Amino acid sequence: MPSLSASEKERFLRALEEDRVFRHAVMGLLGFKELLEHFARLEERFARLEERQQRLEERFAGIEERQQRIEEHFARLEERFARLEERQQRIEEEMRETRRVLLVVSHRFGVLSEAGFREGMRFVVEEVLGAGRVEKWVYRDEEGVVYGYPSIIEVDVVVRDREHVIVEVKSRVSKGNIAELYRIGKLYEEVEGVKPKLVIIGGFIDHKAYEAAAKLGVEVKPAIREHES
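User: That's the sequence. What structure does it adopt?
Assistant: Structure tokens below.
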């Protein structure tokens, strides 16, 4: 193939620079046209991809907004449920308190026997002592430790972990009841080898009973809660 002279090369390069039609014709011969068309198609595809990506981002933004609204809705529902549970708990406490008052008043006016009062107060025992295994402790006190003469001693004992709790329920608690429970505790310790915690629950509690309980280490629990004025 004959080579171009220096002047021919110079005219050729000048024509490429100055003649646009000639330049495109040469590029077409060299395959640049196909490349340019390919690049143009690629740019169109990229433009469509960017458009699709933008639409996807908008959809995701809408989903995130909806999710946020749903989360806020659930948060409000949880708050309402918490308030409802709190109200239900208050109502249940008020009902338990009303039941206590009715039991105490019923026994005070002779509608309910001492045994019936103790049976009705079982829920108070569970509430005061919490979880634990309740057992009936029955023992014949031959030496008369409790009453000064041989007798059958029968009390409720709650065993939780390693703690033993003797609990008595009385409609009216006097200092004599405190002393009696104290002696039962001493007998239990002597027989079982475990020093028990002593708890007495009462409907009406004499102020002297509190004094005796403080001295003898007996815990007194009113059947009716004392509300502060």
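The domain at 114-222 is CATH 3.40.1350.10 (Trna Endonuclease; Chain: A, domain 1).
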